[in-house]
Amino acid sequence: MRRSSEETKAKILAVARERFAADGYERTTIRAVATDAGIDPAMVMRYFGSKDRLFAVAAEFDLRMPDLGNVPADRLGAVLTAHFLDLWEGNEALMILLRTGVTNEVAAERMRDIFATQLGPIVMSVSRTPEDAFLRAGLAAGQILGLALCRYILRLPPVVAMSREEIIAWVAPTLQRYLTA
Question: How many CB atoms lie within 10 A of CB 104?
Answer without folding.
Answer: 18
